[in-house]
Fold this sequence. Notes:
Layout: H1 2-12, H2 15-53, H3 58-94, H4 97-103, H5 108-111, H6 113-144, E1 154-161, E2 167-174, E3 179-187, E4 195-206, E5 210-223, E6 226-237, H7 244-249, H8 259-271, H9 277-304, H10 311-338, H11 344-365
Antiparallel strand pairs: 1-2, 2-3, 3-4, 4-5, 5-6
Amino acid sequence: MSAVKRTGRRRFITPLDRYVASEFLTIFGVTVLGMPVLVFVVDLVENLKKYTERKLSLPTVALSYWYYIPDTMFMVLPAAVLFATVFSIGNFTRYAEITAAKASGISFYRFIAPILLMASGAMLMGLLFSELAPPSNAKRIKLLEGSTATHENTRYNFAFASEGGRVYRIYSLDVEKKTVENIEAEERGSKKRPGLLIAAKSGLWHADRGWILSSGVLHFIPNDSLDLAFSFDSIADRHLLETPLELRASEREPSEMDFRELTHFIQTLERSGADVNSLKVERMLKIAVPVTCLIIALFGAPLATSSQRGGAAFGVAISLATTVSMLVLIQLTKAIGAKGIMPPEPAAWMPNAIVGVVALVLLARVRT
């Protein structure tokens, strides 16, 4: 029985598969480790003056780049897959290894199967980094605010999502007086606890007690058909932990929220009548960018078969041109989706759709 199992495994994972996978992973590993370093150097050169003005210490800046790793990895994975695909396939083509495989009865599609499997793994890594990046980004932004960061004393008509998942809509905030006016707090219900909605005319920050909301109504919403409302003169909100100054600075970006938090934030803003198209694009990109890893491998594999004469320079040119084109397409579709020219979700997938169609055409033209 064990001999049968070993034979079956050989047929599924051949020495050629291991060879192709190892060549891909070698280039992928070097690229995925080298690209973040390049990103960090460029960012440091660009922002060095700002870091100096904010009197940030060297350990603080170094720690901020540690927190920047998940977000950077999320963005560079598709480019790393592209470089690894183009250079590995280019080498196989240059040394006639693909031709030899075809002569042995192995089609081009079967030959690149290990690369597509590795690209799928990179896609899963991208999905993981999309969830790890938001809390790290929040810590990095807090670190880089610095001791000289200045804020205005007032802020108007904004929404804020607390770390506990409660979403606040605040008409006005006065940092100097430590007050808010017309504040609403919403918390989504679950099977274990009811939904919650608090609407208060004002709120005052106390250093020892936190936020005390005054003159409002507390709604308990166990289900869609029941709403229990209670008026109150004052109530302490233990979920809003931010001070007035922190609240003034806490304009959370999509990069600071994971998919679930961003979805809840979007739904809350939609109910308040806000334009959320740009946020919907950003949310869908958290999935679309990792999927790019697989699509870009399908695109790069057939394209790299024409690089036998161009060598490494041709591979670099293909990889850089495709990466820049993808970045331009992503920024373009962000603008298209944000302006409502097309629905935001399809807009986020448009770069993948375009590259995917080109990849299918190139794959159909490859001699198998």
